[in-house]
Amino acid sequence: MKRSQGVLKDVFGYDQFRPMQEEIIQSLLNRQDCLVIMPTGGGKSLCYQIPAILFPGLTLVISPLISLMQDQVQQLQAQGVAAEVLNSSLTAKEYRRVLSRIYNNELVLLYMAPETLMKENILEVLNQVPVDCITIDEAHCISEWGHDFRPEYRSIAQVRQRFPKAVCIALTATATERVQGDIQKNLNLEDHKIFISSFDRKNLFLQVEERQKGNNQLLSFIGDFPQLSGIIYCFSRKRVDELTAQLQGLGFSALAYHAGLADKQRQENQELFIRDEVQIMVATIAFGMGINKPNVRYVIHHDLPKNLESYYQQIGRAGRDGLDAHCLLLYKDGDRSKIRYFIDQIQDPQQQRAAYDHLEHMMDFAEAPHCRRIPLLSYFGEHFEQDNCGMCDNCQGKKRLQQDITVEAQKFLSCIVRTGELFGVNHIIDVLRGAKNEKVLSKEHHKLSTYGIGKDLSKKQWVLLSRQFLRQGLITADEKYGSLLLSGNTGALFRGEMKVMGYLMQDKLKTNTSKAKDYGDIDYSREIFERLRQGRRELAMAESVPPYVIFSDKTLVEMASKKPRSRVDLLAISGVGLKKLEKYGETFLKLIHGEAYDPSSLIKKTEEEKRSRNQIIAEEFNQGAAPGELMEKYNLKMTRLVGYFEGYIQEGGTMDKQRIRDLLGLEEEAFKAIDGFITEKGLHGLSNIPQGLPQLKVNRNQQKLLQIIYG
Hints:
Layout: H1 2-10, H2 21-29, E1 34-37, H3 44-54, E2 58-62, H4 66-78, E3 83-85, H5 92-103, E4 109-112, H6 114-117, H7 120-126, E5 131-136, H8 156-162, E6 167-172, H9 177-187, E7 193-196, E8 204-210, H10 216-223, E9 229-233, H11 237-249, E10 254-257, H12 263-274, E11 280-283, E12 296-301, H13 308-315, E13 325-331, H14 333-344, H15 349-366, H16 373-379, H17 393-396, E14 403-404, H18 406-418, H19 425-432, H20 438-442, H21 459-471, E15 475-477, E16 484-486, H22 491-494, E17 501-502, H23 514-517, H24 526-543, H25 547-550, H26 553-562, H27 567-571, H28 578-593, H29 599-610, H30 613-622, H31 627-633, H32 638-650, H33 657-664, H34 668-681, H35 689-692, H36 700-710
Parallel strand pairs: 1-6, 1-7, 2-4, 2-5, 3-4, 5-6, 8-13, 9-11, 9-12, 10-11, 12-13
Antiparallel strand pairs: 14-17, 15-16
Helix pairs in contact: 1-3, 2-3, 14-15, 18-19, 19-21, 24-26, 24-28, 30-32, 32-36, 33-36
């Protein structure tokens, strides 16, 4: 693991592993198969990239999308790692070059789609070289219960048999227990370790609002994120085109992405977004799986997603750099009916039931009266322990107080009974509110005792109530037809023996987007950050790579905060490895300091860095720096400060003994007593001072300081 730590710092520029990374890497190095479920932005890639660098043979990475492969390979190559992609996007010459590198054992990592891997000529090539690891990225694609099922992924198990000595790791950000089981079964993962990280993306602010007419609501939100990257998901291609045109007309930098565009146009739009040349991508769900752009600051869902897995994966495209990002979901009651219509077209009864179940979970999240992380994480089998996450609209807004809605529940359930448990939500509400439409009149439901008894509430209020009754188990909805049925525990409600608590209104909560749009609470120079961002963009254009391949926004923010003065300082910035330091170090130091940049000061600072920390701190003390000042400056406790003094003496330095004596904090009489005791007993008696002089209590730090004085 020492070698792994070295690769982490020298190649990738990070000082420490994220949770579980170290254990996963160790398992792979021990040749133990792994299943890893880790949220987007959690650091899945390093879990196999670091072992790949340490393995003597080749690591194969099976990935579903060309863009995703190319993105990762570009980043690895920028860090000096021998990685290549093998797919249909290569020219014949490039294809032959990659095959040659495989034959010559020059590669550490080889990325390919499952279709490419299964070609017999490719398998024959791979048979000629040692394959140490098989990595299956986006492993949920293997499962027919996953939201992105790809039949080609099922064939990967056959390849495992061709390379029995290769360790296998399967990774995904989204997998329910059922999908996890399917992955393990299909890949024949035996005697393997399962690593399941928390699904909680703590840096994502979750917000849900009822969608208003027009786009003022949307435009107001986007206006809070000037010059920052965002994605807007829409249900239909038509809506994507309309919204894109409107945004462009208002001067926003926006492009569209959907399956109706020509392949070349889609690819070009995606590239412009990835390279920060366009800020907003308006898209259908066809967009995003292959996007590893770390600086997306917001994701908006203009329509209700079909299920929580899709929603979770799509919001996962925000804040991959670890900085705060904002996720806004807009929906109307009609969204649910629209999704139900498409579910009704599914022929397979089992798949249809699963789709209805997914929709209900989605609605539970959208209408949650409490912390939104509770229903979201619960869907993935995780219990959220906190009462307040501080990063969703419900937790950040004013707490909503429940009220007694027993009478409303009795009215609603009575109406279901009177109409024969044959109708859905809309018809029940029409009867309660005294509607005179054709359906109510033709069924003669205007003659029922429950007709018009709910006029005091609006349709929106009754819809909200009906959802609460469903969640509380008072009623159920027929999966196929949507008709409402009473559950078995409603007798107590009608007898007045049961109270129902809930909400009559969906509160509008004011939320704060400042964290997401200003990189959280980090104190940094905006002017320097903009210089760095512009310089990075120019470098990226010159090298034909996305800007984040040079450095991420998170790295630039840290540079703008710490203002490193030397290459040594720069190497301490997260995300700066040796290869990037060599290639970009001086350029970014110039960008940070502008006209004040002086290469000679760089040499001087580097020489200063060669001095030990013991010397720097001890000499500052000798020159008059107060102990409290030093402890605050270097974030030290007294024990550590004294330790630096000891280290300085061991290196041949001399401490100001009068200042050390002052630091002891002893009265003159006490010091004289100790002085006499040590003169008589010698330094070896230091540890016995408390016994030798019972009237004194000398702590461990004071003993060390005395040793410095009398040493």
